[in-house]
Amino acid sequence: MDSLKLYGVRDIRFEKAEEPIMHSDNDVIVKIKAAGICGSDVSRYRLLGPYIIGMIWGHEFSGEVVAIGKAVTNVSINDRVVGCPVVFDGEDYYYKKGEFNRSDFNNAIGAKRPGAFAEYICLPSQNLVKIPNTLSFDAASLVEPSSVVIHGLYRTSLTVGKSVAIVGAGGTLGLIAIQWAKIFGVGKIIAIDIDDAKLELSKKVGADVVINSLNEDTEKLIAKNTDGLKADLVIEAAGSPITASQVFAYAKKGGEILFLGIPYGDVHVKRYYFEKILRSELTVFGSWSNVSAPFPGKEWSDSVKFFAEHKINTEHIVTHRLPLSKGPEIFKKLMERKELIGKVILHPDEK
Predict the structure, then answer these.
(1) Would you identify the CATH topology of the domain 2-146+291-347?
(2) Which SUPFAM superfamilies does UniProt cross-reference here (predicted)?
(3) pLDDT (tens digit per residue) in 202-223
């Protein structure tokens, strides 16, 4: 079958791979219809390389069930599904508590086992969530990043009428977070980014205020738009070592900070920003992965529900739809940054 394999930093190859086979009566084989490129994929391509050289890459996908093991009861052949990428190679204290996202045995497809940039994938049946016919495969492939966002939001005390500032608002996580904030009934959504084109996308999906942090005093503008108090909740979705330190200045006293982005570099926090944690008595949430009990969790069922009801619009997020064979080419373009590239969806069944 066709696949994309990661061999090293900036070394991804379109190659043939063996089709997956079932090793357990609980396994399911899915024909992949759409697979998204995640921001973490871009960072690993640019900086870190693979966990295992030559591994089939990718972890965001939707598809159609083509084979099931004898013990499988939750899905049937021809079902349309999305796949939770989290698999376990053991059990520990957190796994047994049902805190699956905290388990040391929590691994993602595309890391230490074959991923979603391929024509087929094999996963345990519990990793698959059915989707309705009204939800397109392209849109459904964004359920995975949505589950990442909502897993974090469920950790906070976000309620109707509160204010939210989202840093990195023009990326996939940010654009989805804006829409989830609208669903939560947030009073004011402030989008922060360094790209005007991405800020325009933020407006289209529901941001009330947009701030280009390269050209404007972000802290002052947030205060101006929140009666001088600043935001009830600040979401760091950029994954930048720079913004990861600045966000502490954007929250009101007694406010909350939620970290969703992964800064692939050391974070150096100036005294001015660090003291905001203490002097403003902030609550800081780290958020990892996208699963809860009962596995894979309400992050997945809630995302499918609101996607199917078109409460979350993916058309402003997806900018490129390409055959899987164009994978190496689009990753190079992502490094060049010469054009606006949002979410990229790869189609393994297109030649």
Answers:
(1) Quinone Oxidoreductase; Chain A, domain 1 (3.90.180)
(2) GroES-like (SSF50129), NAD(P)-binding Rossmann-fold domains (SSF51735)
(3) 999 999 999 999 999 999 999 9
